């Protein structure tokens, strides 16, 4: 028996059985790998990024993400004992709510080295003949939540990842949420490695799961690790297909002591396993040859012997395929992290197969009021136009080419705040990913979303919940800025040489934004009421903090009732927010029951409504006016010629059109004799104030007090009649609010508003036996309509199937046979086979508490995910039923 991975070894050489002493010194970033730097899309590649992987762990809930992450931390030497999800001692699930529920809620960003650093030993010289995993790399890992309510957390993490490990439960196979996160990762073109976990459990079916990767995820499984079953059909180790070795893990061990078997040794000990390993190697080489010409050459050089190709050649070819075809080729590894089996080969694969930060496509950015889009590198190199090719917003604003390139040179850093966490001990922590340049300690950062400046007085690297002080966060790295007062999740931060802290960089650079994440509409809400007046301030601050952390939460204050509503994407989402608010942030508030967030839509256009707001604001008189018409969004609207229109898409399918005299960015009139805007209210400020006022008015519908949906608002701001000597931005905002409120009321008086309900697109995975009862329940009891009935019927002999995605023929997928399927030893359970997928549209109201019902219909095996499909107008009959139940307190 040898101690593997305690010390690095090139696994494909004899050195593995006589471990090399060439371990890694504390600092590993001095080596140069110029050939990778050549492919970079960033202006300057820090050496550090060459040995960094920013990866995430994605999966269906309970697949074992946190358990696997804990093993990664243990083997990397970051923890001395293995944390356990079930007794709440994990490093990554560190929020009390996470530990109490045993689930991951907030993505935890952790950094560690793989292979582990061994201080005092010589750093090996990098060589192209050794795998990358022979040298220590910094892994920035983000453990993401699996529950559908936290999809936004997953998206936010995906946004900053360069690669992902997708963990599958080897018993359940590919589950509904796995498909969802897999597709979301595909949308960001993120290369993925699959880890089939829980192979120690009864009913584990590696072969079936591998076939499902092809048929349900639409990727060719490149099987790199296969389970090594013992004579009782239990998982005893792993077959390493790349290195052609058997890895035997002693039962009950911590996974560090592994016995290695060469192919010959394996042949003598377990010929079935040896034959399977050769079959897997053959399949891997064939698959790679289909996508990589260099592999075809290697195959020919090896006299067409699949086994003779070197592990290094296989790894390099696999890497090329994963990077070039992230949607098509998915390396697959096997293990059981709870039993400490198979995690180190997975870590090697992260280093060997997933991309460097600089190997990722250029990050998408937008700039200027018209949102010109392009790549960050393109923008920084001056190749992206800074002004729309259409009519320029302002003739005076055109920047000369020279000025532009000078301005671009002054951009020192561009980073994304991808996560904000209010830590009870350390205060607010802002997690950032740097995309260009580097953030230095004490840097002045301009927030391009909030248009304000903050100083990064300290910088940290987080090792789960331990912080290490650092001097800078270079490009491609993830780090933490503690103590920022304003930055929110999703904000872009830039540092700019010579910028005035108050005004920031010059326009339009001051509006540069890394592509934001679309936030889905909230469908549940709770009321939040302070226990006493004295608590109001603290509650407001706490809600502000929650919103900084999680932009998928919404807070609105009902002006008439004075009640505050907190809205979110799911029941669990709001439960957790409530726990954070009351438990962690100690807000003394009464939180109402969770209710469905219906919407309200007008059915007829209002007349033109003109309001003049004329009141004291903050002790000073302020006056402004505007004219409004509201219409159902499908109705056309005319805009008078000669003026300029500014169009905005608002939440809930609402649109806003603002008509002004033709003004330049500074608020000067260009074409007619209308008075200009005062210098205190440039055009951007005018438009932002109107938008704020309109959004506040739309938060409460005129009849039922639900937010307004599918409505088009047209505001005319005429500087001749709406502007006064004492007009302020706040007065404009108030004028817009009251005029829209009045227009909505007038429309509702003329014709009743309609209630709209969220209708969900539900994807359910069930076994064939339960299919009939699930479909019947959906369509009769829940008023849903079935959109599709997909079959993932895979025969266990791998020969035939009725199902094909993206030209993946299941018969061509290599997958070893599973013990219960007759390959090794029969098992009593065969959970997971013959799963079907039902997609249906169902009103959210009918889906409340569905999981429990589904479990009872399917003997505990059914799973589902849902997303908002759309808000649908309710018939008068349905409206009556819903209100009736609400009145009797039966609504959720
Ligand atoms: N038998 C067995 N159980 C496992 C294995 N891996 C994880 N588990 C168990 O599965 C359950 C879920 O594991 P987690 O690691 O919390 O799963 P997760 O994917 O992080 O879950 P969420 O964070 O809630 O999405 C726990 O009870 C683990 O002990 C495994 O390899 N074998």
From TrEMBL:
The keyword Mitochondrion is assigned to this record: yes
A cellular component term, taken from the record's GO annotations: mitochondrial matrix
TM stretches of this protein: none
CDD domains for the chain: EF-G, EFG_III, EFG_mtEFG_C
Binding site for GTP: 59-66, 143-147, 197-200
Keywords, sorted A to Z: GTP-binding, Mitochondrion, Nucleotide-binding, Protein biosynthesis
Chief localization: mitochondrion
GO biological-process terms attached to the record: mitochondrial translation; ribosome disassembly
Gene3D superfamilies in UniProt: 3.30.230.10, 3.30.70.240, Elongation Factor G (Translational Gtpase), domain 3 (3.30.70.870), P-loop containing nucleotide triphosphate hydrolases (3.40.50.300), Translation factors (2.40.30.10)
Entry GO MF terms: GTP binding; GTPase activity
Stored InterPro entries: EF-G-like_DII (IPR053905), EFG2 (IPR030851), EFG_II (IPR041095), EFG_III (IPR009022), EFG_III/V (IPR035647), EFG_V (IPR035649), EFG_V-like (IPR000640), G_TR_CS (IPR031157)
Residues in Tr-type G domain copies: 50-358
Top-level taxon of origin: Eukaryota
SUPFAM superfamilies assigned to the protein according to its UniProt record, in alphabetical order: EF-G C-terminal domain-like (SSF54980), P-loop containing nucleoside triphosphate hydrolases (SSF52540), Ribosomal protein S5 domain 2-like (SSF54211), Translation proteins (SSF50447)
Compartments (UniProt record): Mitochondrion
Function per UniProt: Mitochondrial GTPase that mediates the disassembly of ribosomes from messenger RNA at the termination of mitochondrial protein biosynthesis. Not involved in the GTP-dependent ribosomal translocation step during translation elongation. Catalyzes the GTP-dependent ribosomal translocation step during translation elongation. During this step, the ribosome changes from the pre-translocational (PRE) to the post-translocational (POST) state as the newly formed A-site-bound peptidyl-tRNA and P-site-bound deacylated tRNA move to the P and E sites, respectively. Catalyzes the coordinated movement of the two tRNA molecules, the mRNA and conformational changes in the ribosome.
HAMAP family: mEF_G_2
Stated family: Belongs to the TRAFAC class translation factor GTPase superfamily. Classic translation factor GTPase family. EF-G/EF-2 subfamily.
Protein name: Ribosome-releasing factor 2, mitochondrial
């Amino acid at each position: 028996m040898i101690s593997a991975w305690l010390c690095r070894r090139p696994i494909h050489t004899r050195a593995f059985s006589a471990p090399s002493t060439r371990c890694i010194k504390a600092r590993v970033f001095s080596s140069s790998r110029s050939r990778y730097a050549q492919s970079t899309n960033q202006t300057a590649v820090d050496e550090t990024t060459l040995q960094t992987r920013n990866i995430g762990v994605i999966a269906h809930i309970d697949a074992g993400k946190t358990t696997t992450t804990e093993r990664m931390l243990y083997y990397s030497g970051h923890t001395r004992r293995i944390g356990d999800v079930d007794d709440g001692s994990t490093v990554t699930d560190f929020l009390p709510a996470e530990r109490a529920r045993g689930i991951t809620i907030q993505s935890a960003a952790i950094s560690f080295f793989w292979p582990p650093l061994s201080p005092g030993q010589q750093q090996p010289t990098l060589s192209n003949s050794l795998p990358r995993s022979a040298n220590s790399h910094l892994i920035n890992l983000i453990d993401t939540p699996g529950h559908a309510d936290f999809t936004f957390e997953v998206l936010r993490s995906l946004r900053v990842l360069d690669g992902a490990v997708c963990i599958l439960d080897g018993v359940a196979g590919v589950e509904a949420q796995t498909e969802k996160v897999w597709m979301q990762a595909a949308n960001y073109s993120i290369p993925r490695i699959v880890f089939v976990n829980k192979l120690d459990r009864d009913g584990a079916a590696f072969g079936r799961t591998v076939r499902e990767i092809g048929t349900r995820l639409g990727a060719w499984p490149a099987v790199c690790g296969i389970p090594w079953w013992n004579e009782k059909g239990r998982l005893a180790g792993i077959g390493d297909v790349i290195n052609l070795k058997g890895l035997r893990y002693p039962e009950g061990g911590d996974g560090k002591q592994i016995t290695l078997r060469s192919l010959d040794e394996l042949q003598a000990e377990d010929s079935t396993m040896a034959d399977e390993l050769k079959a897997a190697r053959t399949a891997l080489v064939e698959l790679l040859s289909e996508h990589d010409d260099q592999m075809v050459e290697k195959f020919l050089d090896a006299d067409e012997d699949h086994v003779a190709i070197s592990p290094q050649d296989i790894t390099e070819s696999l890497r090329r395929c994963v990077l070039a075809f992230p949607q098509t080729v998915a390396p697959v590894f096997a293990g059981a992290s709870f039993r400490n089996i198979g995690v180190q080969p997975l870590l090697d694969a992260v280093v060997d197969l997933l991309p460097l930060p600089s190997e990722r496509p250029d990050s998408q950015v937008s700039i200027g009021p018209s949102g010109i889009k392009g790549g960050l590198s393109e923008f920084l190199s001056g190749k992206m136009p800074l002004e729309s090719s259409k009519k320029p917003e302002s003739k005076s604003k055109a920047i000369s080419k020279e000025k532009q390139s000078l301005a671009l040179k002054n951009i020192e850093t561009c980073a994304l705040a991808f996560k904000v966490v209010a830590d009870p001990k350390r205060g607010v922590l802002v997690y950032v990913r740097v995309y260009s340049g580097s953030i230095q300690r004490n840097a002045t950062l301009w927030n391009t979303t909030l248009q304000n400046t903050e100083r990064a007085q300290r910088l940290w690297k987080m090792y789960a919940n331990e912080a290490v002080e650092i001097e800078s966060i270079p490009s491609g790295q993830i780090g933490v800025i503690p103590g920022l007062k304003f930055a929110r999740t999703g904000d872009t931060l830039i540092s700019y040489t010579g910028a005035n802290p108050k005004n920031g960089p010059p326009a339009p650079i001051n509006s540069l934004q890394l592509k934001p994440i679309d936030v889905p509409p909230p469908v549940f809400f709770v009321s939040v009421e302070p226990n006493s007046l004295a608590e109001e301030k603290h509650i407001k601050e706490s809600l502000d903090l929650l919103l900084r952390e999680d932009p998928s939460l919404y807070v609105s204050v009902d002006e008439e009732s004075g009640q505050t509503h907190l809205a979110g994407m799911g029941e669990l989402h709001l439960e957790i927010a409530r726990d954070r608010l009351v438990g962690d942030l100690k807000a003394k508030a009464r939180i109402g029951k969770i209710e469905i967030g219906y919407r309200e839509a007008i059915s007829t256009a209002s007349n033109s409504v003109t309001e003049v707001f004329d009141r004291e604001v903050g002790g000073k008189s302020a006056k402004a006016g505007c004219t409004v018409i509201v219409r159902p969004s499908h109705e056309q609207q005319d805009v008078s010629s000669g003026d300029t229109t500014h169009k905005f898409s608002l939440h809930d399918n609402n649109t806003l059109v603002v008509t002004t005299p033709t003004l330049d960015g500074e608020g000067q009139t260009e074409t007619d004799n209308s008075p200009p805007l005062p210098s205190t209210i440039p055009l951007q400020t005018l438009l932002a104030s109107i938008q704020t006022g309109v959004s506040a008015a739309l938060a409460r519908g005129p009849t039922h007090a639900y937010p307004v949906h599918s409505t088009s608002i047209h505001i005319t701001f005429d500087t001749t009649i709406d502007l006064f000597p004492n007009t302020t931005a706040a007065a404009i905002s108030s004028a817009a609010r009251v005029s829209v409120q009045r227009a909505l009321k007038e429309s509702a008086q003329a014709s009743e508003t309609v209630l709209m309900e969220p209708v969900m697109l539900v994807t359910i995975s069930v076994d064939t036996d339960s299919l009939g009862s699930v479909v019947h329940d959906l369509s009769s009891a829940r008023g849903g309509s079935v959109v599709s009935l997909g079959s993932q019927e895979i025969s266990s002999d791998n020969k035939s199937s009725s199902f094909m995605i993206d030209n993946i023929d299941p018969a061509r997928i290599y997958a070893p046979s599973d013990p219960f399927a007759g390959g090794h030893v029969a098992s009593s359970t065969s959970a997971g086979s013959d799963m079907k997928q039902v997609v249906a549209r169902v009103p959210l109201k009918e889906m409340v508490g569905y999981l429990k019902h589904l479990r009872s219909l399917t003997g505990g095996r059914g799973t589902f995910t849902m997303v908002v499909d759309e808000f649908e107008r309710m018939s008068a009959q349905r409206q009556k039923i819903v209100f009736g139940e609400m009145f009797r307190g039966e609504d959720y």
